[in-house]
Amino acid sequence: MVKSPLLLLLLMVSLLWAIPVPASWFNDISKQVGAIDNQKPLMVEPLTAAELTDYPAGYQFERVIVPSHQAPLFVLQAGLEHSDTVVLIHGLGDLASKDWLTVIPALAKQYHVVAIDLPGFGLSQGAVFTYSPKEYAKVIDWVVSRYRHPDAQVHLVGHSMGAAISLYYASQYPGNVEQLVLVDAAGILDRTAYLKQISKRNMANSELPQGFRRLLARVDNFADKILEKTGTGFDPTQLLSRNESIRNMTIGEQTNTNAALALMEQNFSVLNYQQMPATQLIWGADDQVAPLRTAQALLHILPRAQLRVIDGAGHVPMKSHQRIFNQMLLTSLASTPLAREQGSENQSKRIGKCYQDSQQYFSGHYDQLIIDDCKLVFVDDADVNELTISDSIVTIKSSRIGVPLNKMMITRSTISATDTHFLGGINSTQSRFDLAGVTFWGSSPVFISQASTRLVLSLVRIHTPTHITRLGGSYVLASESLESVL
After folding, report:
1. Degrees (nearest 5) of the Cα angle 24, 26, 28?
2. Which residues, other chains included, contact 91 with Cβ-Cβ below 8 Å and sequence gap of 6+?
3. pLDDT value, residue 130
4. What is the CA radius of gyration of the chain?
5. Is residue 69 within 8 Å of residue 60, measured between CB atoms?
6. Which of 65, 221, 273, 375 is the most buried (most CB within 10 A)?
7. What is the pLDDT confidence band of residue 200, given thresholds at 50, 70 and 90?
């Protein structure tokens, strides 16, 4: 018996797809739903005292209709006497704009604050459509144009799903906001990379015996293999993506499910990040919903970005660490991050080696780094000219690896890399890669599989002399280059 409503839903949709039906069946359903959608505009329901119980009396409230979707929208305003506007976008959950109530008083002392309940959430319930970043970006664009003060700067602040939506909006409507602030943005990494990250043990500071650490590393490695295979297999959620009418009839009114699936379907890796405004990242160090790796990957891909981390905080730092968060947010809004500087040429003669060992750390400049049969190797903030890895499990972060025209050799190994530049190229044999916020620089092909290579890519770029390729998703390579399967 299927106990989960979502699993039951997916099973029903799967059966519908398998049943032979006349070609016009889906069109008929679409017309029926379309007829509902094209009815007279929604009448706005006035706000009641009961609905506003949890909100301070001194703010301004209204519920209006968003023209793009004929959807009700709850809007809160504070600090109307100030010129520059801060627009707040909430994440998943029933609280919606109430998540910002600990933040608005501090902001309203210096800024005109606009906080909304996205359609389908909070006091904006009543409209059914695909709650995707693309559709919500249209709502935000209307809010920005309607509520901003004339000739004033607009700062867009989003949390969790709201941060992902804000990121999408800034990429599709360049020039509309002066600055972007992303708080614990969710849904940015490839879904396989995300599942692997939240299931991973933190072994970086483990004091367990070496033999036990090697055993746990092998167990985690095996679990990652299983998750990676699901990333290239059949995805039942795609059944709901094929037809908007079916989606709206089945999960349209289940707001959190609708929005979560739509967020999961958005490939953030293919956005053009070069046109993004200056971006501030605020993150909880212990966030298990949107791991800190997401922030590090975004820091790599955004042209002007700065990361601030709150120690001990989880996914909702504005509630768990209210004072620190408000201070960080105000500081972020008042400052402009600069582009990150590139390191100078590495002329080090140092050679680093790891052989049949565990929990080795490498940092700084190396001419060569040779890793052989080591199960827990961490390369952090390193500049390495030549890298050779075999039969090992290696995590690379905030590093610059390789030199132009040379190829790195990776054999029977598992590599996780974040916020890293690879120069030259990689030759892989029977290896697995999880890359987030990574840029390859060189002449095509920059990544060659000699045999059996799996890749999970998030926010990856390939820069060659002739073009730039933006990549995300899961890939399985035989004896071929990555570029050949794109």
Report:
1. 65
2. 99, 158, 159, 160, 161, 162, 163, 186
3. 84
4. 24
5. no
6. 375
7. low
Question: Could you identify the residue written with the tokens 């109307």?
Answer: 80
pLDDT digits (tens, 9 = 90+) for 147-159: 999 888 999 999 9
Q: What are phi and psi of 374, to 5 degrees?
A: -125, 125
What is the average pLDDT across 171-191? 94
Q: What is the pTM of this model?
A: 0.82
What are 145's two structure tokens?
């144009």
At residue 210, the pLDDT reads 52
Cα separation, 447 vs 399, in Å, equals: 18
Q: Which residues contact 233 (CB under 8 A, 6 or more apart)?
A: none
CA angle 179, 182, 183 (to 5 degrees): 140
Tell which residue, 415, 386, 414, has the closest CA to residue 402: 386
| Six token digits for residue 411 | 């054999």
Convert the chain into a string of H (helix), E (strand) and C (coil): CCCCHHHHHHHHHHHHHHCCCCCCHHHHHHHHHHHHHCCCCCCCCCCCCCCCCCCCCCCEEEEEEECCCCEEEEEEEECCCCCCEEEEECCCCCCHHHHHCCCHHHHHCCCEEEEEECCCCHHHCCCCCCCCHHHHHHHHHHHHHHHCCCCCCEEEEEECHHHHHHHHHHHHCCCCCCEEEEECCCCCCCHHHHHHHHHCCCCCCCCCCHHHHHHHHHHHHHHHHHHHHHHCCCCCCHHHHCCHHHHHHHHCCCHHHHHHHHHHHCCHHHCCHHHCCEEEEEEECCCCCCCHHHHHHHHHHCCCEEEEEECCCCCCHHHHCHHHHHHHHHHHHCCCCCCCCCCCCCCCCCEEEEECCCCEEEEEEEEEEEEECCCCEEEEEEEEEEEEEECCEEEEEEEEECCCCCEEEEECCEEEEEEEEEECEEEEECCEEEEEEEEEECCCCCEEEEECEEEEEEEEEEECCCCEEEEEEEEEECCEECHHHC
Whole-Å CA distances, 172 to 88, 161, 168: 18, 17, 6
Q: Which of 482, 389, 485, 402 is closest to 441 using CA atoms?
A: 402
pLDDT at 33 over 50: no
Asked if the model's pLDDT at residue 400 lies above 80, the reply is yes
pLDDT in the model for residue 193:
53
The Cα–Cα gap between 163 and 322 comes to: 18
**Contact of 127 with 71, CB cutoff 8 Å:** yes
pLDDT at 94: 87
Contact 437, 470 (CB under 8 A): no
CB-count burial class (<10 Å; 0-12, 13-18, 19+) for 239: buried
- CA dist., res. 75 & res. 116, Å (int): 5
